[in-house]
Amino acid sequence: MPVFSSRFRPAISFIIAAAAFAPAVQAAPAVDAAQLAAGEKAFAQCKACHSIAKGARDGVGPNLYGVYGSKAGAHSATFKYSAAMKASGETWNDAMLNSFLLAPMKAMPGTKMTYAGVKDDAKRAALIYYLKVKSAE
Question: Cα 57–104–77 angle (5° rounding)?
Fold first, then answer.
């Protein structure tokens, strides 16, 4: 006796053929442990105002969990962002984070973040990487 009746054979053949042409599922990119550790170290100074733990409350600044890829001024539902941040229309991506973390008040005039910025390029890149990885967890 056949495993599948003849009435199901066309559907099964179609599924097998479709699977052969389906795009391969890509694995998540590997995490660069050294860059992540450098970013965590760089984030230590940010902890005075920010958290990056899922579900943690806002501090002086908003909780940054999941910030990468979100809209500026809209990430945290409970933080009171500046009008400049809310009106910016920016998305927190590599370029925007780089600009903002270099010189927050220059990148977004009117921001409440009075921090002078991360001047070291490598440290800033590691910090952005850390925010990106942590945002995806």
Answer: 30
What are the φ and ψ backbone dihedral angles of 20, each rounded to 5 degrees? -65, -30
Amino acid at 77: A
The token pair that represents 103 in the structure block: 């010189």
Closest CA to 97 of 113, 110, 79: 113
Q: Which residue has better confidence, 1 or 34?
A: 34
* pTM reported for the whole predicted model: 0.77
Residue pLDDT, tens place only, 43-94: 999 999 999 999 999 999 999 999 999 999 999 999 999 999 999 999 999 9
For 98, counting Cβ atoms within 10 Å of its Cβ (0-12 exposed, 13-18 middle, 19+ buried), the class is middle
Nearest to 64 by CA among 40, 33, 99: 40
pLDDT score recorded for residue 8: 52
Name the burial class of residue 58, with classes exposed (0-12), middle (13-18) and buried (19+) by CB atoms within 10 angstroms of its CB.
middle
The secondary structure of 5-66 as a DSSP string is -TTTHHHHHHHHHHHHHSPPPPPPPPP-HHHHHHHHHHHTTGGGT---STTPPP-SS---TT
